[in-house]
Amino acid sequence: MQGPFPPTMPDDFLIFTPDDVDLARSPLRRGIAEPTFVLGAFNPGFTRLPTGNLLLMVRVAEALSEPIDGSHVRAIRWTPDGYVLDRHSLAGVDTRDPRQFELRGLAHRMLGLTSLSWLLPVELSSDGRSVVAVHYERAIEPAATWQDYGVEDARISLIDGRYYMTECSVSAERHCTALHTSGNGLDWQLQGIILDHQNKDMLFFQGKVAGKFVALTRPLGEVYFAYPEDAPYVGGPSINLATSPDALHWKPMEAPGIRARKGSISAMKVGGGTPPVQTNDGWLHIWHGVERRETVGIYRSFWALHDRDDPGRVLRIEDDTPLIEANPALTASMADRLYLPTPVVFSTGMVDAGDDWIVASGEADLACRITYVPRSRFA
């Protein structure tokens, strides 16, 4: 028999899933009449609002229920007049990846997306255990041609009382990082492009160093150069750092940051996760590392500590024992909707909760996950 009090809620749970999105209120309704579904509601920006409640800025990847129409595959694109569908001949397209299709026979690798992403503000209780409101009227969608295939993977930092949110803007023009700012965490203004190159994980430190903004970045390219055979590192994407006087104009730091290390289960690829927070020991952040497995790889969350006054100096890094791993039990009820071949968790924000940090993650590129991590874990 259940006692007078509700059972204790676990410290690791899904808080928002595709079924929680009301597509009748999607911005895509301005132009797309065909049925759509939520491929994923995941990888949320995360912060605490002035009220004390928490905010998830959820990436909603909305896809056509029938992307293939006869002899063509279709992609959703934003225009100033509404959303339209572009058609690409199936004869020249590889559609094996459910997230994207690849146009064959071109001089450069060329992709199309099977979904378009927009950002949905979801307000949580102060402990992150319940949804208070879903702010469809404040959804962030493409607003320029350099975003016309979607906005993805928000990261939010609170600096000197103002909120700064980076996101990845996708288009045929460029694959860039854009900045939004807010005074209250709910009403956002687009400030424009701040990195004009493919950079999937730019996130601001949650505080300035010597009066400057500092950010983690991860520029991507088609070619990487090899380390010497006796080096401890593996060539490829790495977490770099940059500084700015105004959050708009950025200069890369010469310190190499975090690089994939030989022998680590994160050796395939590394990238930023949560915006670094200041602790007594330095700047703490959670990053993701990828183990090579099939086409996508296994994504796990690790952590690192940077010097408070010299953030290019990494004081400690944990890249062998994961802090957070994918948990198939969390998505078991949605197993028929999983589309990735390997386990994936992607941590995107952390807030102070006294004896714990509350960490927000994307689980399986499908849903939003909340995990309580004791402060003692970082001792």
TrEMBL record:
It comes from the Bacteria. Gene3D superfamilies: Glycosyl hydrolase domain, family 43. Transmembrane segments: none annotated. Pfam families: Glyco_hydro_130. GO terms for molecular function: glycosyltransferase activity; hydrolase activity. Keywords: Glycosyltransferase, Hydrolase, Transferase. Coiled coil: none annotated. Belongs to the glycosyl hydrolase 130 family. PANTHER family: GLYCOSIDASE. This is Putative GH43/DUF377 family glycosyl hydrolase. It comes from Sphingomonas aerophila.
